Each structure stands twice: as structure tokens, then as C-alpha cells.
């Protein structure tokens, strides 16, 4: 049976077809290989998108922390020797140590609500 197929040239035709499609098959395998690694792995497009989203979240946290730093720097500036704000100092002492004159009316305000701070 094999000798009949070999004599008829069927194997030669199949080998020539195989040789003809081998470069196309190789290129297709390369496309699949590089396509797979472009979508998965440590340096893939999906990881890049996740890093971009994480970068946006970290940038938002940085903005909140920078706003908080500005507030703290302003408060620190009011307590320095050269520019000591006595009203602010009096307010801080009364709030930290719970001092109040019997005739004082105490109104507390949450500074974070007024400045629209977000909790990190």
C-alpha cells in the first residue's frame, strides 16, 4: 500500500504543500507567540494599563498630601518666633489643653470638612 502511494507521487505532493505552507505557519506561530506575550507577563499591555491606573491613584493621594502639607506649613508659619500669631497660639492652647474661660462660647469646626480633604 505504501509503495503504491509512493509510486503515485502523493507523498511528494504532500511534502511540497508542507514546504509551501511552512513559512506561513512559522510567521503565524511568531504572531501568536508575540501576541501572547504582549498581552500577558510583567511588561504586557495589561500590566501597563494596571500601572497607569495605580499611577492615577497615587497621584490623587499625592495631591491630597500636598494640600495637607500646605495647611501644616501655614500653621507652622503662624507659630514661628518672627511671625507668632497670638490669636492662633491662644486657639491652639485652648483646643489642645481644653482651657476655656467660663464666659467663653466654644464653637468647634472640622477643618477637613471645610477644606474638602479626602482620607488617604
TrEMBL record:
InterPro entries: FtsL/DivIC. The chain crosses the membrane at residues 21-39. Keywords: Membrane, Transmembrane, Transmembrane helix. Pfam families: DivIC. This is Cell division protein DivIC (FtsB), stabilizes FtsL against RasP cleavage.
Amino acid at each position: 500500500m505504501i509503495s503504491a502511494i509512493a509510486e503515485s507521487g502523493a507523498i511528494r505532493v504532500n511534502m511540497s504543500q508542507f514546504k509551501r505552507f511552512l513559512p506561513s505557519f512559522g510567521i503565524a506561530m511568531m504572531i501568536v507567540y508575540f501576541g501572547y506575550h504582549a498581552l500577558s507577563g510583567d511588561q504586557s499591555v495589561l500590566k501597563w494599563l494596571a500601572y497607569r491606573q495605580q499611577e492615577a491613584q497615587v497621584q490623587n493621594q499625592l495631591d491630597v498630601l500636598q494640600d495637607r502639607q500646605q495647611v501644616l506649613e501655614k500653621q507652622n508659619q503662624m507659630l514661628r518666633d518672627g511671625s507668632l500669631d497670638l490669636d492662633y497660639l491662644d486657639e491652639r492652647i485652648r483646643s489642645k489643653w481644653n482651657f476655656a474661660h467660663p464666659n467663653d462660647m466654644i464653637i468647634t469646626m472640622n477643618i477637613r470638612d471645610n477644606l474638602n480633604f479626602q482620607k488617604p
